[in-house]
Design a protein that fits this description.
Order of helices and strands: HHHHHHHHHHHHH
Helix content: over 70%
Strand content: under 5%
Number of strands: 0
Largest sheet: none
Structural class: mainly alpha
Oligomer: single chain
Shape: elongated
Distance between the termini: 67 Å
Radius of gyration: 34 Å
Length: 281
């Protein structure tokens, strides 16, 4: 009911323009003696009291009367809306604090205490939290407009939203990297390894990372992804050396000893993924 009353009031100016246009059109038709039945003339407002302008005025009057009667109810809902807005403001403060402490760009990820894959999980988590609060914000904004209250800004929510947009570009690039390494992992090391393909793939990913907007590069996790790319690229020359026929079994044994990894060097089963597990960077 309150929404309907608000819509009626907001539509008054537009309706007056439409009535004036329709009435002018009917005056022109009457001037040229265009035949019209009484029902049409009455609806146009040119005959009797049943015209659309009269009906609209009656509707506006009724809306004002109902609005007056709803005065106490509106006061109650205004108070509830203000309380809900206050709670939402507190929730946005909490969101920003959590985002800074345990978000996708928090100190534990920047320092390497938590892997970048966990950052991807946190991206999903905070996108969900932001989406939930945005729905509440939209509802409260509509309520404030409805009850004539000043709209409340939510700067903490805006910070999280803008940060997630910038971080999403970084993590999307990192996700492309993980998908590529998963694809390369299935390559038979001794039979099918194509070093040029690895180099070309890393060139493309590195170029994509470098072309990200300045806002994205200001986040600490950008540096972490950059380091991850550089670390992987540094292993590519080593892969070439490991594939050399000059490398003896004792060299592989020493490598397994140093990395704490053990595997079968069968040319038909030994994949690049086994070397990735060694973390040779």
């Amino acid at each position: 009911t309150v929404r309907l009353i608000s819509d009626i009031r907001e539509s008054t100016a537009v309706m007056e323009e439409k009535f004036a246009l329709v009435e002018e059109q009917f005056r022109t038709l009457e001037m040229f003696k265009y035949p019209m039945d009484d029902a049409t003339l009455e609806l146009a407002g040119n005959k009797g009291d049943a015209g659309v302008r009269k009906r609209w005025k009656d509707l506006v009057a009724e809306a004002n009367e109902v609005d007056y009667d709803l005065g106490k109810v509106k006061m109650k809902f205004r108070k509830e809306t203000m309380q809900q807005v206050e709670k939402l403001t507190e929730d946005t403060h909490t969101l920003l604090a959590e985002f800074r402490e345990k978000g996708p760009d928090s100190a534990d990820i920047q320092m390497g205490d938590v892997p970048l894959d966990e950052g991807l999980n946190r991206m999903s988590e905070f996108k969900g939290k932001l989406e939930d609060l945005t729905k509440v914000k939209d509802e409260q904004t509509n309520a404030q407009l409805l009850f004539g209250l000043d709209l409340t800004p939510y700067p903490d929510m805006a910070i999280v939203e803008n940060s997630l947009k910038s971080l999403n570009l970084i993590y999307t690039t990192y996700e492309d990297f993980t998908k590529s390494t998963q694809e390369w992992s299935g390559t038979l090391f001794f039979k099918d390894l194509n070093v040029d393909k690895l180099n070309d793939g890393m060139d493309e990913l590195t170029d994509k990372l470098k072309k990200l907007p300045k806002a994205s590069k200001e986040f600490g996790v950008y540096k972490k992804v950059e380091e991850q790319f550089a670390k992987f690229r540094s292993t590519i020359p080593l892969l070439t050396q490991l594939k050399s026929d000059a490398l003896r079994d004792r060299h592989w044994s020493k490598l397994m000893e140093l990395t704490g990894k053990s595997f079968n060097l069968d040319h038909n089963t030994f994949t690049l993924g086994k070397l990735f597990e060694m973390d040779l960077g």
